[in-house]
Amino acid sequence: MQDFNRVLELAIETGQIMLQSGAETHKAEEVMHNVCRGFGHAESEGYVTLTGIFLSLKDSSGNVSTSIKRIEDRSTDLEKISRITKLTQTLLKRNDSQSHSARHMTFDEYNANLIEITRKKQYPMWAKVLCGGLSCGCFTMLFGGSWRQFYVAVPAGILLRMFLLFLIRLRLNNFLLNALGAAFLVWVAKMAVTNIGLMNSDKIIIGGIMLLVPGLAITNAIRDTMAGDLVAGNARMMEAFFVSVAIATGAGTMLKLWSLIS
User: In this structure, which long-range contacts are made by residues 31-37, counting pairs with CB atoms below 8 Å and at least 24 apart in sequence?
Assistant: First the structure.
């Protein structure tokens, strides 16, 4: 029974990390089933939504245990998704009953690998901020901006990235986070253009807003829907829709205020 409960615990923890790292719901279900099968429990049923994970496991005696995990925070970490997927595939391969030559992976070994993946730090904060600024500048050029606008868009993107990090620490919801971020970007772009002059702020604003666009949410919504997870697909699409509304609300409000005071 101890091994049975530990398999359930490791499987749902694996699914939690996947979902919190930005994986599709069907991908989180797949890795949970892989963990259960890898440790000799083929009869498992998982159901994953954006805010919760449900996993049931049946032992050899027919007893069923169910575990539920609430998901509150979600971000994007594609490296974790890739490494966990590879780890579960390795677990299946090494613990395959027909593979007698392979060295079986124990609970402790799997858990140690999972902890290592979880604790692995992403890129340093200065790199994220700098890349945010460069992305803003590149998008500005992509939408037809000049090199002069590029040099304004880069610091604007850096300031936006720092402002978003500050808002995240305040634990604001996604709507306020994106609305305030868009408004701040418009204010920075308008202030820069006003002081520098002879420049249009539209391309700078568009380039910066691309940092806020929920591209991964839209992509995962489509992939979940195509995989048959209609609830998760529609939920992600609604999430992306409200984020888009928040961006438009923040940017539009600041543009209107600027036109009134200028």
Answer: 31/84, 31/85, 31/88, 34/88, 34/89, 34/91, 34/92, 35/7, 35/10, 35/11, 35/88, 35/91, 35/110, 36/7, 36/8, 36/11, 37/92
CA 243 to chain CA centroid, nearest Å: 14
pLDDT in tens, 127-159: 889 999 999 999 999 998 888 899 999 999 999
Q: What is the pLDDT of residue 102?
A: 54
Nearest CA to 133 among 152, 118, 119, 105? 152
Helices 202-209 and 230-261: crossing angle in degrees, nearest 10, is 150
Output the six-digit token pair for 190.
């308008």
Q: Which H or E run contains 27?
A: helix 25-38
Query: Residue 177: which pLDDT band, with cuts at 50, 70 and 90?
Result: very high
User: Tell me, what amino acid is at 105?
Assistant: M
Specify whether the CB–CB gap between 243 and 214 falls below 8 A.
Answer: yes
Distances (CA, A) of 13 to 4, 67, 75, 113, 231: 14, 10, 16, 13, 22
The first and second tokens of residue 229, run together, are 């997870």
Q: pTM of the full predicted structure?
A: 0.79
> What are the contacts of 258-262 at 24+ separation with CB within 8 A?
258/186, 258/187, 258/190, 262/190, 262/194
* Angle, helix 230-261 to helix 174-196, in steps of 10 degrees: 30
Q: Are strands 64-70 and 44-48 parallel, antiparallel or unpaired?
A: unpaired
| Cα 122–Cα 151–Cα 169 angle in degrees, nearest 5 | 35
